[in-house]
Write a structure and sequence with these properties.
The chain has one domain (about 5-85). With about 90 residues, it is mainly alpha-helical. It contains 6 helices and no strands.
């Protein structure tokens, strides 16, 4: 397994497969070269790198959203009448 993915899995508590499924491993590996563990954690959970969101996808794939089981605001339309239903719980 790739050392960056292995380290990221250990730091975030998400599996290597979950991290790889974001499609951001290569981009994050390039950004995080020489970064601290705290910066790597922040990047994965928030999709923000040193105050900047590198791509729209980084925001939408932030692990914070997956951890609390919701879609990121503005990234997925819930549909008409959705305010009448309780939010779905994550399988996590």
């Amino acid at each position: 397994m790739d050392a960056f993915v292995e380290l990221s899995a250990e730091l975030t508590g998400f599996s290597a497969e979950e991290l790889t499924s974001t499609g951001l491993v290569e981009q994050y590996r390039a950004l995080a070269d020489g970064a601290s563990e705290a910066e790597i954690i922040q990047l994965w959970y928030t999709g923000v790198w040193r105050g900047v969101i590198p791509t729209e996808r980084a925001y939408a794939e932030g692990l914070a959203w997956k951890a609390i089981g919701v879609s990121p605001p503005g990234s997925a339309a819930p549909g008409f009448g959705s305010w009448e239903q309780r939010p779905r719980r994550s399988a996590r």
